[in-house]
Amino acid sequence: MSDQTRFTLDDVVSLAKRRGFVYPTSVIYGGLANSYDYGPLGTELLRNLRNLWWHEFITTRRDMIGLDTQILQHPETWVASGHVGSFSDPLVEDVVTHKRYRADHLIEAWLEKHSDKLSEPVAVENMQLPDMATFIAEHQVLSPDGNPVTEPKAFNLLFETSIGTVAGEKSVVYLRGETAQGIFTNFKNILDSTRVQLPFGVGNIGKSFRNEITTGQFVFRTLEFEQAEIEYFFNPAQTNWQQTLEDWKQAMWQFVTHTLGIKESNLRWRQHTDKERSHYSQDTYDLDYQFAFGWKELWGVAYRTDYDLKQHQEHSGQSLEYTDPHTGEKFIPHVIEPAVGVNRLFLMVLSDALWQDSERGRLVLRLSPRLAPYKAAVFPLLKNKPELVAAADEVYAKLAKKFAIVWDDRGNIGKRYLSQDEIGTPVCLTIDFQTLEDQTVTWRDRDTGEQVRVPIAELESRLTTMIE
Ligand code: GAP
Asked: Which domain does 142 fall in, by range?
């Protein structure tokens, strides 16, 4: 099999829309910019991603527990965390069209075209607002429409809304900009209500919102998205942070390459520069994936020190100290934070799995069977033969108790295979006349196209092995 074909983002988007993975939101009203709903297959794939993440990082680890926290938190949360003050991107506006852009993105685009005009290489990630302003002025960086842009200014990404309190009064709240803060603000609850001891981690999956200046690139960067975040708490006097960061990098790599089956050649690590790091971090690495539009951050891991717990202790007046059960020492734990966007995992697995089988003239989504929306498709060979339909019904009902299974009786078998290949179903099971005689079905493999006879009694165990 050849892995040579590189697909464009349009190829991925087209398959996703055509086969019910992703739909543009509110399409009957003309759509809503950069907003997407997940169709029947996309919903299954997202659930599989979440469940695999939860299983690997929470369920199977003794040192991890899970939480499910609110999108709306007390507004002081975001003051304490630093988001109200410094959660911003550099905004410029096209002076003619008034379209908004990220200054760093415009400079990156300029550098891609004109880097030969510079005597020394320029690292955009190291630029602060005044550096960007100077660069834009000196090199006359223009908007994509060819117009001058305004001087860059900091634009806060937090979504602000309000809730009614007493009649006629409203108070400001923010849609959370990260799921992480719900973990920090529950730290005391966790210590008081569970028996955890350091080091331990807390995972949280849910929606976050950012008023991103530049979106696009499909579900890669949207205003509403889902995060799966972990705060791993430890005593810095006993646990080496560099080693803990390294352990988490390995765990992330293992999840992406082994559990999700992503090609290693499409992955790389990148350490943040001093200027680029978030306000709370002492060291950060990005696990980048080579998307159709270039190497981009998939998953970040940061050493957040005791920044957040200290801030919340100060702003809330509540002690967020941990007491060592052996020594009685009281201190604020430090954290390592692996934080990933579930929608970015989604775009990565679709992009990585797409394969043009030129030998057989078919498009195949070679998803890991663990991820596949349907683990098997069940077909009666002919839909006008009641005895075949009844036998297929039985197989379907038996397997559907354990696995996500799909039924298809439309068109000829060849077309049904092609249709399942495109949505990543690893196995097609055909119930034919031989089934009625010997209780076997045709098991057809998605990737090789090979067909073997398998007893109905063995289907469950073979499918279980396939997704282990
Ligand atoms: N708590 C740390 C934090 O939020 P981040 O790097 O800003 O760090 C973590 O976000 C992950 O969330 C990113 O690596 C990315 O996968 C995802 N993410 C961030 N902004 C996103 C957006 N606008 N759309 C989709 N995913 C996003």
From this structure: 88-156
